[in-house]
Write a structure and sequence with these properties.
Two copies of one chain form a homodimer. Chain A is built from twelve helices and twelve strands. Chain A is an alpha/beta fold. The longest helix of chain A has 17 residues. Chain A binds a DNA duplex through α2 and α4.
Amino acid sequence: MGKRITLADVAARTGLSASTVSMVLNNRPGSRIPEATAERVREVAEELGYAPDRTARGLRTGRSEALGFISDEVTITRYASAMVRGILDAAEERNHAILMAETDNQARRIDNAVRLMRTRHIDGILLGLMRARQVDLPADVGGLPVIIVNGHVDGYSSVLPDEHQAGLDAVNHLVAHGHRKIAFIGRAAEHLEPRISWTIGRRLAGIDQAMHDAGLGFVHEVHGADWEPELGYRGADEIFDNAEATAILTANDRIAFGVYLAAQQRGLSIPADISVMSFDDEQLASYVLPPITTMQLPYLQMGRVAAEELLARLDAPLSGAGPDGPPGETLVAMPLIERGSVAAQGAS
Amino acid sequence: MGKRITLADVAARTGLSASTVSMVLNNRPGSRIPEATAERVREVAEELGYAPDRTARGLRTGRSEALGFISDEVTITRYASAMVRGILDAAEERNHAILMAETDNQARRIDNAVRLMRTRHIDGILLGLMRARQVDLPADVGGLPVIIVNGHVDGYSSVLPDEHQAGLDAVNHLVAHGHRKIAFIGRAAEHLEPRISWTIGRRLAGIDQAMHDAGLGFVHEVHGADWEPELGYRGADEIFDNAEATAILTANDRIAFGVYLAAQQRGLSIPADISVMSFDDEQLASYVLPPITTMQLPYLQMGRVAAEELLARLDAPLSGAGPDGPPGETLVAMPLIERGSVAAQGAS
DNA sequence: TTGTATGCGTTATCAG
DNA sequence: CTGATAACGCATACAA
């Protein structure tokens, strides 16, 4: 129940005034204070365990050194929750606090969260989405800087996974392992709608481009918008029946999981009989046998990058060009997580 | 960049003084203000979109209506992250903000988080753990109320899953389905150590008691402290070779997953040939075929209950007995998630 | 019934 | 070089 130590306390203890102590502790360029007294102030502050009251400081300066993180449902969506960690880590490094709220993307709750946070003087807003898609920000952010994490809102900057490159990398990984007869499961026109997905189009474009660049075409393609195991199961069956693929590329891990089931049922071994390569790196991907080689959605890193970018913007001179500029996209690499589901293939 | 509306603004607009407006908006019992003017104040406040500045208010009142949530790694541990959501939801309902930090349970980072939050005047602390175990709280919380979520710290109240009841329920579910020849995988002395697990002992005790109450003993038991698929795979093999179990109870879902693998390899069908019942309800449990019937670790609910309990304690008169009392444990029910892995068994 | 004065802990301005 | 003094926005004891 220790009474809080205030500036006045350390002032009294040093015999100096509060303003002097404040100057020293913030080493303001305004006036040169003799190193002797400055040192003494710092000593006493340390000794007393003085820590500035951020709310009082915030009231005075208008800056709180706190960021708001508003998400739709990254917390409840298990595989996206690492985004939170990335943000927390970056904020901690810069001694900033994170205020958090989750809204299920309901306008009313978003609005509420923004208002609540603004009354608490946050310096900026991070809006996080579980799936990368376009949404609206119905709330009045009152001129606060905003960065969208894993999504898109018209007029704001965002941090997104580099899906195009991931598409390239995935195909190239298969090609590099000697695969030429590749099948694909999961193409769907629906996903090209920005409000369904802002990035899947790029993933597909990357895949197509890499195939084209390698002079290949898919030996079989299974379309489908519902990216669940069921599709993978059905799709793999179809592929086994109609094509001689040596590798199956799936649009996500859940589809890949369905492929595993189908393969198992037919007595086909992965990767000896058929290689599987996928996207997302859900928990699932690491638990099946063999674990799935997949392109990871870098939630942790996206959170970190977004927070760092927001902090950088806050540092920039208020009106200067700085890292402000027009809203843009920062792409975060999707690492290739190499596990056991892709085998080398001799020249076919 | 709309200038903030302050109490002074609405005072000026109504022709009243700031204090009067303040009284009305907080409807203080101090003095009765004529409904006419009160109404007018509320109207103007609404019209101007006035929202009290919480930092200023906090500075004055000492209460911030913000809670700190410090966790070890619930965010990065995918299946525990729902705890965050439970806390956020409860806080939102009460118009409280949540400040969040994650520490990997490192003393330095915990201390840092507590200090950072205290300088921001939080009203209380929620300390969340990914796995229910005993830890220390090395930081000086300065008399702030603290509640531990899913864990134990000497001297503090906590919210925990009701593992004993879950143990009873799991066994009873099997028994109710006619199973008498039950095997168990996952007993381990190591887990009885409080700093490894605060609750597994209760889970096991519940299991044992229910078996005893049903007049049964396990037809086979596989010990093992490393609760991963490997143990389930090995354990199931052992059981298939040595016993005639109709059901296998596993200490967690990952073990159960290993059992699935072993069963598949032997051409045994779940649940036709062998039933499987488990604990935790990881994502994994819902993806395998058939999905696993399991006792859910109620992270969402634990978060919610803990936050509500902390808020209730804050409401209580500072010194009164209230819901304060000696540190205690609040148990949250672990729901039985019935899926497809347990079949009814005729009298054996 | 309502207004005035004061303070919460800081920082910033401006004299001394 | 340093110390009063004011102000941030609000709530409250007290005076009117």
